[in-house]
Amino acid sequence: MAVSRRALGVGLVAASVAGTGGYLYLREHPEIAGRFGEPKKLFGFAGGEKEGFLANGRVHDLLERRFGLVLDARRAGSVEMVRERALLDQHPQFLWPSSSVLVEVARSSGLKPSRDQVIFTSPIVLYSWDRIADGLVKGGFAEPAGGPRYTVDLLETAESGHRRRKLDRPGCPGSLRPRTGRLD
What we know:
With about 180 residues, this protein is an alpha/beta fold. It has nine helices and five strands; from the N terminus they run ααβααβααβααββα. It has two domains: about 30-120, D-Maltodextrin-Binding Protein, domain 2 (3-Layer(aba) Sandwich); about 130-165, no CATH class. A three-stranded parallel β-sheet has the order 2-1-3.
């Protein structure tokens, strides 16, 4: 069976359109492209609290195998990564600060994030002297978690409006209340 010149031309145009469309689609969807092509290397900054997570070999393997990404994530303080010109002049492809508040600081610094999303929430770590920790346990605000560690439900403590005298710490009058402030 002979193929006409018209059918051959239409077939070539259709193949070209399909190839271009496939390329553009895969370029925008790294979760698919990672399985077929070279991994995309991204450079950026991440807060120190994410350092252990990003150093995990299983995280590296998953990002490369499933999403086609290899991260060159350098440690930087969350405030510095959104404000310091020396860091921003390196033209990072991503920033991973500690909170969404810092995304707003980045915007006010003139950065224009193409996308922002909360993808990882790390615990708040508090350091204290032994006698303060003992007072928190006696007051029912903290529970021993093995060794020198304790767990505290800060939200419940702040919302309940407990008085400091319940902490069994004489000389500390007043109430517990969360304090927030602007970073700029």
